[in-house]
Amino acid sequence: MPRTIHLHNIEVKSLSHPHGDLPADMQMSAQLIFNRHIFLQTMAVEMEPSQNSWKLKPDCNIPEWALTFCLAIIRHSPTRGIRLLGHTEATQDEALRSGENDKISLCLNLAKINPDGPLLQLIITASVSDFAAATPCNGMDVLRSQINSVNSNIQTIEAHLNQMDTDSKMHIQSDTAALWAIYESILFLPTEKQVRARLLKQLGHICLKHSERSHMIDYLNQSVYAYDDAVRDDPGNVTHLQDLGFALYCRFQQRGGVDDINKAVVLYRDALNHSAGNYLHTVITTNLSTLLGVRFRRLHDINDLKESMSMQEDVLQLTPDGHPEKPGLLNNLSNSLLHCYEEFGDLGYLQECIIKQEDAVRLTPDGHPEKPFMLHNLGNNLRSRFEQLGDLSDINDCISKQEDAAFLAPDRHSDKPSWLNDLGCSLLHRFERLGDLNDINESISKQAYAIFLTPEGHPKKPGMLKDLGNALRLRFQRLGDLRDINDCISKLEDAVGLTPDGHPDKPSWLMDLGTSFICRFERLSDLSDINKGISILKDAVHLTPNSHLDKPTMLQNLGNALLRHFQQCSDLSDLNECISKQEDAVHLTPDGHPQKPARLNNLGTSLKIRFEQLGDLADLIESISKHEDAVHLTPDSHPLKPVMLSNLSNSLSTRFERLGDLSDLHESISKGEDAVHLIPDGHPDKPANLTNLGSYLRHRFDQFGALSDLNESISKQKDAVGLTPDGHRNKPIMLRNLGTALQLRFERLGGLGDLNECISKKEAAVRLTPGGHSEKPGQLSSLGISLLRRFQRLEDLSDINNCISMQEAALHLTPEGHINKPSRLSNLGYSLLLRFQKLGDLTDINESISKQKNAVHLTPDGDPARTAMLNHLGIALQLRSKRSGDLDDLQQSICQSTAAACSATGPAHVRLDSAKRWAHCAQEAQHSSLLTAFQVALDLLSEVAGLGLPISDRHYQIMKAGPLVRDAAAAAISSGQLEKAVEWLEQGRSIIWGQFLNLRTPVDELQQKWPELATELISLSAKLDRGTTQENDVQLADSGAQQSLRSIAHQEHENAHKRNVLLSKIRHLPGFHQFMLPKTFSQLSSAAQKGPVVLLNVSQMSCDGLIVQKGLTEEVMHVPLDDFTPEYVKSLAESFEDLMPYVGRGDIDRLHAHRERSFQDLGDKFAWILSELWVRLVKPVLNALAITTPTKDNLPRIWWCPTGPLTFLPIHAAGLYGKDVAFGSKLSDFMISSYTPSLATLMQGFCPTSLPQHEFQLLVVAQPSSVGLGYIPGTKDEIQRIQQCARGKVSVQSFVEHETTLANVEEGMMKSSWVHFACHGVQDQYTPTKSALLLAGSSRLTLERIIKLSLPHASFAFLSACQTATGDKELQDESVHLAAGMLLAGYQGVIATMWSIMDNDAPQVALDVYEHLFKKSPPDSTQAAEALHLAIRNLCESSGGKKSFFHWVPYIHVGV
């Protein structure tokens, strides 16, 4: 009976442990081979604890026919791969002879596969039986390969290899088991004569081809094993060293193992050493330089990059032009230069890289297989330069090159998918710059096709999926189609799933996936998305070492996600962690790196947000510093420059809100405008920048009150809302910003449509903001304020109740320590105050005061918002004092109002309101601070009506001040401080004209001592003088003109601010502490050098005359007008207004009988008004002056400077009129009257000119007809009489009818000393500066044009037109009429009209005036008042006293 050997155990012992072929992570298995066929293979087992043996359990029978059996030992290592370590062979007879009692113990040494392999010993334990039982093969695998033969016949092995090679060329894949069998067969061959090495090399090639086609790692591993054994058989063979190095490089590319690239470099270095003098030396050098470049990209060891470039430069230098390898070498060097740029951010490397790449393309002939590759690389490099500089020609050229490359490559080309994918990325970059949807759609199409062409398992497939996912995310962000973001996440999840752990790109893929979840959260507000996104981003950061180039980007993205989580959930720990991550990102980014500005920018934004939460000024200052660095480091052409500018402007605006520094506000607007200008239409960032700019303009409106700023703000906000799709996370904020701007316009203009639209927008904002969102309290508070405004207008109690409910909800949702907590307390307090005013519930006012006090307590000194809070608290305390009579409340109201008025920050109009309340309360309490309060208020007037504003806006601000100036003067008079009363009336009246005079004031003394400061001041003053009359209602159709107008407005604010800073600096110089400050009385008194000046003050308390005259010990004389009460003055002015005929010079028919009868019917009332003025006002003044004797010749002069309603009453005509009235019963019997807008105007008129003598010329302008008005024939007669009177005495230049163009008239005024206008004149009731003299066609010489004129020779003007000194009812103390404008333009004296004049009177009056003036040579304009006095006397006497008051009273003289 045959005997059967049963194998139980095989113990493998290492006699050379440790050994490089026996890594710590290995397992071991054994193969049982019969007749050169692999029969069975054991399960792989771990090393025994003894650290030098492995115990295998084959548990199988050796068939009786297998007379000889072979055992092969296999290593299995995750890091080192599968490898045959050795083998041994024995016969059954040998085995049987080695045993006793049917027990076999056989000890065999393994034959080494390689001479340097480990020494292994086998101890086989078996048993012998006399029957052949069917024993199961426990612990064994049966190989199912069709080729499991281990042949030792060289010819057979070569035949198999050749067949496999042929199959490979025909794209027939070989079974991996078959390849292993061939591999083992080769290894069983002897190592002599390098035959085995040659066969291993051939096998390696076959496996590598299979790997390149299938991207299966098993094939690639097999090629590495084969090449490795070839090198071990023939260690110095250069080809084998290169083959193994290349295979390891390929595996590194697929798996990312650093050991593989390190070994590849070592192998190529070895090959290089062995190739000295060999033709392969240059090729190996080139390949080694490539590997070093690859390793640099992974490990960022700069020495690798330097060595790589050095090698490339050496090889390039040795390669002559025309050599076929030259383009490839240039291409390699350009790649290294690109790596240098990516590492150091030095643009010079990128520029040189592109030059080299362009040379490579140029030297590569068309049709060359490498041409597409060169074109593609050049395109990539151009894209990199575009990313740095933003030059559109670069990205366009890049796309062109990449399109050429893709077109030249057939679909079967292995690089075609990669090139299509890169082309898609470039199209995406252009989309990000220009916003053209065609680009992103084409990008997605190219990337999708690239993925379609890429087989499963290809190592680049995950990267392509990632790029496609990112493109889909961008399209979603543009169009909002949820399918895009869902598809994006799906693609990125596939990319991550296909990327093994440990792969160097895995963290990057995770980063993009996490970012996409955040993006979907923005749309759907599903917290699970943002939580998942943050978790994934944290994984990405954790997996990335600090040395990795992508680490800063990952930290940045994680920081951004944490910021969004904070904004959603209001957890401060998120915000703090966000800032920490962003600081790490900035720290890890080297200076000069192209991403440094973006990371600084993001950090700055987060610091600003934390400031908004906690109010720590250090955060805001650091935020601005980071944003400034980001802007400084970013060229204007860079696509991210607008973002940098916008965020800097945002932080500057916030600091302005906190500290009130106007330079911050101006700078924020400037930067915001730059940002909007740089962003193309259609760009997704455009709306956010528009709404930000709108907010900054609104802040400037809050500060200065320029309506143009507010209108522009609303326009920007509307554009932002219109461009933002529904569902966008910023939509609620934009709606609120628009609503706030509309509310302000309602407050300014009173249009309910604005307020209702405002509330609608804010309600939508509240509705669209989810609960728990950090913006929800702000939305509620803002809506509450708008409801409060509607309550104030309509008094609907539901509005105030809803307002208070919303303010309470907003306050409840605002955490303690939040920067907006004080403002929300204040808003609620103010709302309760208004409800108290309506309902009188003391609970409301008490709660209001409590809330306001808390708000003030929580707000730091210097915060501009504190001013409004103090103001509101002062109001509440004053109201409670009135209700309860508690004097403590009144004292506290004074205290709070004082603090607000004297604040260094906060809008000037708020401080002015506080100062007025302070004065009111001080007057009520008879507080000693009364005059101080008025002084503070008056000082604020010029700030409220700042020089940077258009005149109409300054007028509005002055109107809001009301009778403040007159009340202040009355208080000073009551205190006996008459000189101060005069100073205050001068300071607080004709403010606009005073500003212009100030701008035009010579600075001779400053020029002598501080010429540089003087030059700067003159320049700024001149700019403001030229630009400050620009009105805000100009309609410009051209967008460029609109932009120019906005720029001018911004520049005016800038210039005004610079001038104020400069004046402050000058006033700190020795001897200049009063420089250009309001004049003192000692200076003002010179206005009375030719006669007394009477200031008539009409306050809410009294009416007073203040007489300024020279030559008296007491220079200010007080004339109490006790019979002329403020109420009586007002009623008298109203009665006079009813008398005014709204007719002009052209109403010829009204000058005949029926109109005269009407005048006669009104004459009695007119006479009564003039008599009241005589008795109650003028006669007391004359008595005070001791002027009691009337005279007809050589009458003295008197100047009247009225205030309030008195500015519309004809004081010069005061007297008693009638048949029996005696001589000496009217003012004109005693004195010749003139008017003056201010004392400064008189002083200016009395100043001698410093210009050289100019030849006298009179300009006469006659325009009898104007569009829309009647013909006035008397104008031609008037001109003819003047010319006749002047003939032979003075030079006359005339413009009549069509000659009276603006250009002719203004040029004539420049050359003439005197000017006479005979034409229509109009006072514009809505825009006073549009008041005008009507010239040819529709031309108008408006007040705003007149005050722009600087007329060096001007002396006297006669405005023989209607309404040239009428003024504006709402601006009683501003002298907003044409006569005052003429004085400002340089004329010393003006004859003008208070209302309409009669066409048939005007020629006679003009002739009489000029006949008197031309008696002297040269004519003296200071005689104009006397000439008018005589002309009017003659007009009345020539009619036998029949001329009604309406004929002669309108004529007045203004000025010197």
UniProtKB/TrEMBL annotation:
Superkingdom as given in the UniProt entry: Eukaryota
Coiled coil: none
Domain CHAT span(s) in chain numbering: 1170-1455
PANTHER family: FUNGAL LIPASE-LIKE DOMAIN-CONTAINING PROTEIN (PTHR19959:SF119), KINESIN LIGHT CHAIN (PTHR19959)
Name the record gives this protein: TPR-like protein
Organism expressing this protein natively: Mycena albidolilacea
